[in-house]
TrEMBL record:
Membership in a protein family: Belongs to the DNA photolyase family.
Cofactor(s) recorded in Swiss-Prot or TrEMBL: FAD; (6R)-5,10-methylene-5,6,7,8-tetrahydrofolate
Binding positions (FAD): 215, 227-231, 256, 259-266
PANTHER family attached to this UniProt entry: CRYPTOCHROME, CRYPTOCHROME CIRCADIAN CLOCK 5 ISOFORM X1
Pfam family, one: DNA_photolyase
Molecular function GO labels: deoxyribodipyrimidine photo-lyase activity; DNA binding; FAD binding
Organism: Pedobacter psychrophilus
Record keywords, A-Z: Chromophore, FAD, Flavoprotein, Lyase
Recorded coiled-coil stretches: none
Protein name: Deoxyribodipyrimidine photolyase
Site entry: Electron transfer via tryptophanyl radical: W290, W343, W366
Ranges of residues in domain Photolyase/cryptochrome alpha/beta: 5-135
Amino acid sequence: MLKEEIAIFWFRRDLRLTDNAGLYHALKSGLKVLPIFIFDKEILDKLEDKDDARITFINKEIEKLKTQIEKLNSSLLIKYGKPDHVWATIMSEYNVKAVYTNHDYEPYAVERDNNLSANFSKKGINFFTYKDQVIFEKSEIVKDDGNPYVVFTPYKRKWLAKLSSFYIKPYPTKKYFKNFIDIKPFDIPSLELMGFEKSNQHFPDQEFKDVLNDYGVDRDFPAKDATSRISVHLRFGTVSIRDLVKVAQEKNSDVWLSELIWRDFYFSILFHFPYSATASFRKEYDQINWRNNEEEFKAWCEGKTGYPIVDAGMRQLNESGFMHNRIRMVVASFLTKHLLIDWRWGERYFARKLLDYELSSNVGGWQWAAGSGVDAAPYFRIFNPYEQVKKFDKDYKYIKKWVPEYADPFSYPKPIVDHKLARERCLETYKKALK
């Protein structure tokens, strides 16, 4: 007897059952659906910290998802390994007719999916992917001549003009939950099996709506609890982008909606210009003669630069996996302009530490600070850390929390570089590279 023909839904950056585009289409396919998740060894093997909090977060969310699916008399198949090896095993064990998933736009994921699609095709398996983690993707928002936008404001204008209720309508997955395959519960690979330890990091919850009431006024002040902290949930898809846009509309929070549009914008840039993940978007900026002093980089990483606002940001990042957006700009400008350290060094460090690490937005932000990206700050715009304190932490509440010894000359280090001299050196170095 032939094994039952099934479809598979592959969870990736969409760890939820509700309002999930690819899952909706899988459950409507007419085939029974086996949901799976793969702990991708190609990604995990590159992580430096064995207690990486993101792996613990994913593991916790996968456990929740598995419990929810098991209440529907099904289960979540969870595998650890290289995707091509995992899929070879799955295809040998099940009569798979179609695989459904949602788009992933990062260069590694695009290459992985292209290779898998070719393998599926050889075996007569259809591979369907859907837009889920953005409102508009790829070439949905482009100039009238079909070229991609590289300046945010006109991109945002067209984004808003195109937005309608259609694009934020939720996918009614609940209607089709009966189409999950009936199967006994699977086991979950342990963190230890994958070479990781449980992190004790605190993860923000999904209750954020109240901060939107004064978001436009308070968001720039790092001492205030005035940001949504929803980014880690958006990164791993435990919330729907469509739901967040609706909340922004309901709260009339144009500033917060603009942040969500920036996210779509950076996804678009990465799609159209994949080289910008590792090279300067404005290629002439790769001619900059970076100093790349390793001792100064270490001081920056550890929050021991002698600049309290910079050090507070780095210590917050190291301890909590979070950094306030205003402070992200300050510390990035300091690294690239004051210390003349390649933006890629900072981007990699953020990639290691941020709970909400998103390649497209992180690269976009770092290149903005360095002046080398799309719609970037001009190279001669150099944040003055002292002025940033006056504007955004004048009572030193944020600094006192993260750098309590800042006022003690015996405990707190002297500045590793003089602001005026660093500014002049930066301008001279950039001018030489860009002439």
